[in-house]
Amino acid sequence: AQSVTQLGSHVSVSEGALVLLRCNYSSSVPPYLFWYVQYPNQGLQLLLKYTSAATLVKGINGFEAEFKKSETSFHLTKPSAHMSDAAEYFCAVSDNTDKLIFGTGTRLQVFP
Amino acid sequence: NAGVTQTPKFRVLKTGQSMTLLCAQDMNHEYMYWYRQDPGMGLRLIHYSVGEGTTAKGEVPDGYNVSRLKKQNFLLGLESAAPSQTSVYFCASSQQSGEGDTQYFGPGTRLTVL
User: Fold this and answer.
1) DSSP letters of B27-52?
2) CB A11, CB A109: distance < 8 Å
3) Looking at the complex, does the CB of residue B41 fall below 8 Å from at least one CB of chain A?
4) Residues of B in contact with A97 (CB under 8 A)
5) How does pLDDT run across B24-52, given as a tens digit for each residue?
6) A36 backbone φψ class: left, alpha, beta (φ>0; ψ -120 to 50)
7) Which residue from B42, B90, B100 is facing A43, i.e. has the nearest CB?
8) Would an 8 Å CB–CB cutoff place A100 in contact with chain B?
9) What integer pLDDT is reported at residue B98 of this predicted model?
């Protein structure tokens, strides 16, 4: 069965600092991997996705993630945090079924 | 395009009451989904549909029913609401899921059951 683990339910960084949000997955077949962002009182918006092309995936708002099969990881990074990045971030995995399996989310706080 | 819309945005029910949540999409997507979001639990799939007239159970289907009579609409029903169904409900749609296709989400419905 597929699963996703997001380490750290809360992450706090200073404005301008590196953002690193961790995601590890479990899948019996090559996965499709996603990062979604949820701003307060809104729905989820796709940040980026991995679909077996390049292992380093660039998304919106300066975020990127690297698929590492040997580590079963798909960590999300941004070199320099901005106040507007404060939100909840969800990692999700899909195989060849019709469904996404979401992690429990990481809330990112950015301090001035 | 409006994308995915959900009606209503907020609702308060008493235990035992029934209600229907409406999801509509204008992207001609085949697949539609209903999720619930609870603190610390991420999003969990309730039911989904792979096309007009079809529905299937997700991870947490008990206490909910769905219908997809028109391609653009996906209805979620609660026949007899319980406090455990207090949650934020999200609808999503995709053109063809399972192949790395993006799911597009609505703004959510916040439901409280007293």
Assistant:
1) S--SEEEEEEE-TTS-EEEEEEESST
2) yes
3) yes
4) 98
5) 999 999 999 999 999 888 999 999 999 99
6) beta
7) B90
8) yes
9) 56
- What Å distances lie between residue A90 and A10, A14, A43, A102, CA to CA? 12, 21, 12, 7
- Determine, for residues B43 and A102 on separate chains, whether the beta-carbon distance falls below 8 Å: yes
B57-70 average pLDDT score: 96
Q: Pick from B42, B50, B102: which is nearest to A102 by CB?
A: B42
Cβ contacts (< 8 Å) between B43 and chain A: which residues? 44, 90, 102
Average pLDDT over residues B14-22: 97
Contacts of B42 in chain A (CB under 8 A): 90, 102-105
Calculate the alpha carbon distances from A37 to A47, A73, A96, B64, B81 in Å: 6, 18, 23, 27, 30
Which region among A17-21, A40-44, A107-111, B71-75 has the lowest average model confidence (pLDDT)? A40-44
